[in-house]
Amino acid sequence: MRNIIITIDGYSSCGKSTLAKALARHFNYVYIDSGAMYRAITLYFLRNHIDWSTDEAVQEALANVQLEFKFNPERQQSEMHLNGENVEYVIRDLVVAEKVSEVAALKWVREFAVAAQRSMGQQKGIVMDGRDIGTTVFPEAELKLFMTADTAVRVGRRFKELVAKDPSVTLEDVMANLEMRDYIDSHRDISPLRKADDAIVLDNTNISPEEQLEFAIGTAQQLKLNTNC
Ligand code: DC
Questions:
Q1: Closest to 147 measured CA to CA, from 19, 6, 22, 31
Q2: Counting atoms of ligand 1 from 1, which one is nearest the CA of 132?
Q3: Is 101 in the pocket of ligand 1 (CB under 6 A)?
Q4: What pLDDT digit, counting tens, does each position of 34-76 carry?
């Protein structure tokens, strides 16, 4: 019996993390939110006024960044800690979202994050979501999903999340941010967002979280993957 690696890539606010968490729960795997790592690095850069246009400044700053996922038993999920501080909530703010794609496109940032992500997958038994997980981080993963959904649906979902925290956020702000991130994420030089050739597409515009979970579990079964479950 062996564990496998499940990767979920796709555009912003497609419901990747909802599916990833549900799959991890179902298979008793560890869920890793790779976007949280890029967000935490961006938060560090913003707070410390790092000029990320120079390689030296980026490398020097990364030497002072320590990222760790810690399990919160109350929420029954892992939370991102940056240099010992729980930043799980603050990294979701629009201020971070506005800069994260720019920071995530940097060579040294990607090397730093990808190395950490690969080491988390050594024991397998993980579900990791992001943009380049099936293409770059774990090209050998046993099950790869690529998620999409209509832009209007994605904007609506993200708006609901953000406005609950900050009532001044507008639908236009959210749409502009989503479109900008999707563009940068899929056009950058290093590991741009794209579907891995062997990934299975899941469009969840019109399906419920329960249906998408069923689809993913069914896919794992069809592929006769041994999920150690
Ligand atoms: O999944 P998310 O929206 O929290 O990700 C935030 C940003 O991080 C996203 O706009 C692009 C970047 N990212 C990336 O470049 N590669 C990943 N594997 C995950 C996220």
A1: 19
A2: 18
A3: yes
A4: 999 999 999 999 999 999 999 999 999 999 999 999 999 998 8
